[in-house]
Amino acid sequence: MTNTYSDYPIGTPGKAWGKEEKKRWLAAQVKHRSYFDDVVVSLEKLSHEEYEVKQYGQLKYEQLGYSDYPVFYVKVGEFDPNRASVLVTGGVHGYETSGIHGALDFIKTASKGYADKVNIVVLPCISPWGYETINRWNPFAIDPNRSFQNEGPTHEANLAMKCVEELKLDVLMHIDLHETTDTDNSEFRPALSSRDAIHQALWDIPDGFYTVGDSSRPQPEFQTAIIDSVKQVTHIAAADEAGKIIGADVKYPGVIHYDKKPLFLCGGFTAAKFVSTTEVYPDSPNATPEVCITAQVAAICGGLNYVLS
């Protein structure tokens, strides 16, 4: 199955979007859920004795007809400047629901079990507007997960990078929580084709969990530990007929690689030795929202158990 920019209702075939097309795209977006009810309230309920919750910035989107969104980090337990740190990021793509709720569930159910061994920082929802409107992009039709560079084009990525820099973390492990959904083919790749006037073929959506390692620091045993942990919760994605997952070669079961830094991916912006991007498939007939959230927590714990062993 193929797709081109001519299939998308916004834009002119052969012409990349300008300001007017981006305004039309933004006007078509609809709020589906509340970041404040689902994320902020959950953070407010955390014990002040066990967690430190701090606002690290604000996304000023009220002028666009939405909200000004405060964004937060969570520190777990007591911090020791002589210990390494673990960074968990969720909601870089706001529409990938279990990334946000997996980060929140990890904070509440599992993080304290590791807090005496390593410093833990969680940024549970980097893109709250994307969460509310179920979008991959921010309101300016820019993908935050292609924007993690110095003075990059999105406030979402810039604020997250500045937060981590100011915390002066010695990041040993960074795990970034994502999903691959059916809407990647039905909405977001067609929109990308239209926005850039560059053909984007549909890819086979893998049924199951997989990870994206960094080709510059692959750490196969670390990636395998994550897969082994998650397979206790849900199934692992198989390679397609070409031996690939979303167009990338499968290096070992359930694991592909991207060169993350040149792509300005969230998983590439730290110097962490151990880096992984999780990918859950929420549209599987064999998955539920609860299973997807549990799989994200299992991925974090599997990585931590390996790194701390």
Structural description of this entry:
With 309 residues, this protein is α/β, with parallel strands linked by helices. It has a ten-stranded mixed beta sheet with strand order 1-2-4-3-5-10-6-9-8-7, with helices on both faces. Strand 1 and strand 2 form a beta hairpin. It is globular, with a radius of gyration of 19 Å. The N terminus is likely disordered.
How would you summarize the topology of this molecule?
Elements: H1 19-27, H2 35-44, E1 51-60, E2 68-76, E3 85-90, H3 97-109, E4 119-123, H4 128-133, H5 155-167, E5 171-179, H6 183-196, E6 210-214, H7 220-230, E7 244-245, E8 248-252, E9 255-258, E10 274-280, H8 289-308
Parallel strand pairs: 3-4, 3-5, 5-10, 6-9
Antiparallel strand pairs: 1-2, 2-4, 6-10, 7-8, 8-9
Helix pairs in contact: 3-8, 7-8
Structure summary:
The protein has one domain (5-68, 85-286, 296-308): Aminopeptidase (3-Layer(aba) Sandwich). The chain is built from eight helices and ten strands. The chain has helices at 19-27, 35-44, 97-109, 128-133, 155-167, 183-196, 220-230, 289-308, and strands at 51-60, 68-76, 85-90, 119-123, 171-179, 210-214, 244-245, 248-252, 255-258, 274-280.
Give the distance, in angstroms, between the N- and C-terminal Cα atoms: 45 Å
H-E order: HHEEEHEHHEHEHEEEEH
CATH-scheme architecture: 3-Layer(aba) Sandwich
- Count of separate structural domains: 1
Strand content: 15-25%
Lateral strand order in the biggest sheet: 1-2-4-3-5-10-6-9-8-7
- Determine the number of helices (DSSP H or I, runs of at least 4 residues): 8
The CATH top-level class label: Alpha Beta
Helix content class:
25-40%
Shape: globular
